[in-house]
Amino acid sequence: VIYEFPGDCSYLLAGDCNHHSFTLLGDFQNGKRTGITLFLGDVFELHLSADGQLSQGGKRLSLPYASHAVFVGSELGFYKLWSEEFGFAVTIDNAANIAVTMTKIHSNRTCGLCGNFNAIPSDEYTAQEGFLTEDSYDFANSWAVKGADQACRRVSDPTQSCNSTKGTAVLSSCSVLQTSSLFLHCSHLVSPDAFLSLCQAEACYCDQKNPEDCSCPFLLEYVRTCRSHGVLLHGWVEESQCFPKCPIGMQYSECTKPCSTTCHSLNIQEVCKEECVDGCTCPTGKVLDGNRCVEVSQCSCTHMGRHFPPGSTISQDCNTCVCRHGSWECTNEGCPGETRVQHHFQACC
């Protein structure tokens, strides 16, 4: 089920609605996605902003992060928060799009903006109060989560018509979904109608300098949906003039390995479960070191949670270790034997 909702509050995206073991909130401001807030039970809380800032209780944390069976990191230009134990994964891309995936164990157990996961589209708009509605705005507004210091305004369905030059340019950009032979390769599996309607609606209140910034997120989601159905739309970037943004030094790829090569994965035999995903990658010959692409020879190393530049040395178990190519190369010497000295005391009365 596809619908549009320019939220202005925190909303329940998805969660375990039977046992409340975890809750995923989507944070929005004036229709823009600003981040994700995760709750595990009633105690543990994490917040991941759209620009990758991670915090807990107002205290900033560093990436990558692992605690309470929850992992947070960045790969392929996405910020990712996931937990195998709780069966969910959340990604935020550079356009601040938020994607939530769940394992089948949560079938018919979830609620919120992402629905109840029961494979029945007709009851997807079930409001928090339990009633079924045909209005996506009534449905979405019902899942607002008001904090103690937060007042949420009810969002209304915009009614304005498009008559600006910018709106016309956005409409033209959206039209490739039904006019381009490249996009039509997927139409027999994924109808472009809903994506086209949302893209056209965005033209009414697009406030970006470039019209493509308004239409491209919808085209990108259509491409990703097609890929999930086994259809790769090679060349869609050039066809639509949509060039997804990537961090400085990285480049966008329509099809790349989901397991990005980093300095710290060079010596790990990682098995990638998916054949191809889109995302930001380092140029050929370079690998990701934190948030920048470097030559392998310039890879840093980590020890006890700290980062060390290449060439750094540390002492470990009576050996000297040098940081080379992202890993520690250590001497192999045993520690000197320990000498025990016994003192005998004699008491005199």
From TrEMBL:
<keyword id="KW-1015">Disulfide bond</keyword>
<dbReference type="InterPro" id="IPR002919">
    <property type="entry name" value="TIL_dom"/>
</dbReference>
<dbReference type="InterPro" id="IPR008037">
    <property type="entry name" value="Pacifastin_dom"/>
</dbReference>
<dbReference type="InterPro" id="IPR014853">
    <property type="entry name" value="VWF/SSPO/ZAN-like_Cys-rich_dom"/>
</dbReference>
<dbReference type="Pfam" id="PF01826">
    <property type="entry name" value="TIL"/>
</dbReference>
<keyword id="KW-0964">Secreted</keyword>
<protein>
    <recommendedName>
        <fullName>VWFD domain-containing protein</fullName>
    </recommendedName>
</protein>
<feature type="domain" description="VWFD">
    <location>
        <begin position="1"/>
        <end position="153"/>
    </location>
</feature>
<dbReference type="InterPro" id="IPR036084">
    <property type="entry name" value="Ser_inhib-like_sf"/>
</dbReference>
<dbReference type="Pfam" id="PF05375">
    <property type="entry name" value="Pacifastin_I"/>
</dbReference>
<dbReference type="GO" id="GO:0030414">
    <property type="term" value="F:peptidase inhibitor activity"/>
</dbReference>
<dbReference type="Pfam" id="PF08742">
    <property type="entry name" value="C8"/>
</dbReference>
<dbReference type="InterPro" id="IPR036201">
    <property type="entry name" value="Pacifastin_dom_sf"/>
</dbReference>
<dbReference type="InterPro" id="IPR001846">
    <property type="entry name" value="VWF_type-D"/>
</dbReference>
<dbReference type="GO" id="GO:0005576">
    <property type="term" value="C:extracellular region"/>
</dbReference>
<dbReference type="Pfam" id="PF00094">
    <property type="entry name" value="VWD"/>
</dbReference>
